[in-house]
Amino acid sequence: MVLSDHTIKEEIAKGRIIVDPLGEGCIQPASVDVHLDSHLLVFRNSRRAFINVREEQSDLTEMVEIEGDTPFMLHPGEFVLGSTLENIELPGDLVARLEGKSSLGRIGLLIHSTAGYVDPGWKGHLTLELSNVANLPVTLYYGMKIGQISYVRLTHPADNLYGSSALGSKYQGQTEPTASRVYRDFAG
Predict the structure, then answer these.
(1) DSSP 43-62
(2) Residue 176 catalytic?
(3) From the candidates 56, 99, 129, 176, which is the catalytic residue?
(4) Contact 82, 128 (CB under 8 A)
(5) Which of 101, 95, 89, 108 has the alpha carbon at shortest distance from 34?
(6) Which residues are bridge partners to 36 per DSSP?
(7) Of 57, 102, 133, 182, whose Cβ has the fewest other Cβ atoms within 10 Å?
(8) Of 47, 188, 41, 54, which Cα lies nearest the Cα of 129?
């Protein structure tokens, strides 16, 4: 069952859902608006012929910062990693879905490729997979509304929360855009 604004407010008041900071007017009928933080991971031109998912490849990206009112220009076909300004935390009986704002989607800005799902027990800033599928550059500003989170109650609290030692969670507690750690899946 998707939580309504009424239930989202109750869960926030109880401290079970954390969205910090929670901007005024950000609770929608069945979601909470989130904003773009100032740091972006930009993919560099690399001498690599391919991305090997079995290897850490920290040289693929570099951190840049959106400063003040100067926008970051996301060019057609470009892909960068951003993050939510908000710290998000979920209890063991809720999952969340991160979705883009329809107004941004209508100009070709996508905020995730596959990472729209937030597990129970998550704590941290969500990494955004920002893509421009339009024919013109799109401006990204620090603090702009970038997406929305809806919440779904589980039939029973999860046995192993995200971040538990049993799962080997790779991104718990992140505070900035975080590059892929898929290589850890191959460590044995």
Answers:
(1) EPP-S-SS--TTS--GGGEE
(2) no
(3) 129
(4) yes
(5) 101
(6) 84
(7) 102
(8) 41
